Amino acid sequence: MIYECLTAWKLRNITIARSTKIILHTSCVNYKLEDLKNLFSMDFDYLIPNDVFWELKLMTKSKIFGIKAEYILKHVQAVTKFPEWDLAQMYQKCVKSISYINIHRGPLIFLFGDLNKTDEFLDSSSFGDNIYILLSSSSWSYVKGTPVIMELNMAKKYRLRSPHSLNPGKPIDKLTRISTVYLNRQMNCTMAGDMFISTGKCGSNAYIYTCNLLPGMYIKGYKNQSMIETQKEKLQLLQKFGNRVSDLNVAFPVDLLYDYPFSIIGYSMKPISGRLLREYLITGWDGHNLGRIFEQLLLILLELHTMHILVNDLSFNNILIDSEDNVGLVDCDSFQITNYPGGGITKMYQHPEISEHGFSSELREPRYEYFALAVILFQCLFGDEPLRQVQAVSDDTELNWKKAVFPLNTDTVSPIANKDIQNLWFNQPRILRKTFVDEFCFKQDISIGAWIRILGILN
Predict the structure, then answer these.
(1) Strand, coil or helix: what is 261?
(2) Are 328 and 272 in contact (CB under 8 A)?
(3) Cα(234)–Cα(228) distance, rounded to whole angstroms?
(4) Cβ contacts of residue 5 below 8 Å, gap of 6+?
(5) Which of 256, 301, 343, 393 is 20 to 30 A from 149 via CA?
(6) In degrees rounded to 5, what are phi and psi of residue 448?
(7) In sequence order, which residues have a C-beta less than 8 Å from that of residue 85 and are 6 or more positions away?
(8) Whose CA is closest to 150, among 136, 165, 161, 171?
(9) Is pTM, for the whole model, over 0.85?
(10) pLDDT digits (tens, 9 = 90+) for 146-158
């Protein structure tokens, strides 16, 4: 349908079609290979922003999207004349913005393959004259429905996503005290609650168990409330996605556990090996390759983004790293998936634009996850929280981004920041320091591709 849509636009705009260039986003790996072949058979020039180039370069290592990432890279030209032109430099808040005529003096058509990124672009882009965008209101991956091409200034008043607010659950007893547990809602497949064996591990809203009838699995049993209505729909969708990408090192729901009358009280998941990232921030990285760890983490995030999933609560509590530097993610029921919100966020990783009252009813944009990622990268590189403004390690004041500011400067010593951190800070390249300042002082959104380039992950 994308080929037909572009063909129709070309016929309607014959006078400007020859001077039009098409800009693709990373999420275009969602297109069918046949659609990509048809797309590149057209008489257009194709460009990608520099950060998209690096994201696609990393995506060539993906078992899910690698073939299509390679195919796109063979048919597009990275914007090399302005090597630091990233997509976010078209955003309103970017202090290092770029004029679109520096990209191309003729018309531009932007193509995306994910509604999260499309909505972010519509909400954040700062100019629209002579710029067009392909929209699809009926398909998250743009592979179904009838897409349309609109001028960006007109399209900016639309939003393509409609959140399904998460309904509160029902009070429940502890999983081990429930007499009959239904597996995947099948009446003939039941277990007794006392078959679940506690591992001693727990989170804020669940206990972790094992069960002899589900060998090799962990079971997450909810503490206080079961999942009903939209919460249940979200878990069922996560289970469906997880079955498609079982090789991904993410603890998606494998089996869903129901009680009568079939609200979800927990789920089984494959165990993710390794220790939590927060433990490494204490013990250090001896024997580990931090570059490989970053590469693994960023690839998983790109793959999930392409599947319309945001790791809503991306934090050092939900990332595991094993002795071989393999990275995995847990706490998948806090993910945002398509129209289903993610829920609460750990304070240190919460962008200040995020409302305290909309956790269960508002959809996030990828740039909010970029912010949490920047916090994690800072913690890994400097062993401390980016908002630390006191030298006394005994000061346990809880800081967040709504009541504190980033204390470090790109080039000058800060009078309020920890001296040890500043010694590490000024031993890092200036571009890295400036990138953290741009992100944490809200001058620019730093995408995954920009971090790949700046950290030299693929060099």
Answers:
(1) coil
(2) yes
(3) 10
(4) 134, 146, 147, 148, 149
(5) 301
(6) -60, -40
(7) 49, 50, 79, 98, 102, 103
(8) 136
(9) yes
(10) 889 999 999 998 8
